Every structure is written in structure tokens, then in C-alpha cells.
Amino acid sequence: MSDAILDKLNEMDVKLDELLTWKAVHKTEHKVIHRDVTEVRSELFGNPGLKSQVQTLMNCKRHVSKWRDFWLAVLKIVVAAAIVAVLMWLMWIYKENS
Description:
Elements: H1 2-46, H2 48-97
């Protein structure tokens, strides 16, 4: 009975070591990411000119996406009209031949 318990404890010990190693690596990576984010935020919010340039780029992206959505809607309508026109033409040809 005690041998089975010792075997289970030895198996758990290896798994616990793996878990603790993973956790240590994860915390280290999290600290690096937090440091990078903190640096970017301090640079961005510490420089009002850079902040306004980033805001201008974001506004431009929104403006471009609005136009892209508009042209995609126009393209969908044109494609649908072309499909209907081709079907009508094929039906007209079929009617003429029968």
C-alpha cells in the first residue's frame, strides 16, 4: 500500500515540477509584455504630437473603411444585376429557340 502511495507521489512530483516551471516562465513572459506595454504607453501619452498623429491615422483608417464598405456594397449590387441580366438574356435566347 505504501509503495503505491510513494509511486503516486513521485509521479505527482514530476508533474508539479513541470507546472511550477511553466508558471515561472509564464510570469517572466508576462513581466516582459507588461514592461513593453508600459514603455509604449509612456511614449505615446508622454508625447502629445505623437498622440495626435496616431489619432489622425485611426480616423483615416475609419474613413477609408467607410469608403471600402460603400464600394463593396456597390460591387455587390452590380454583380447581382449582372447575374440577373445574364439569366434574362439566357431565358430570351431559350424563348427564341423554342
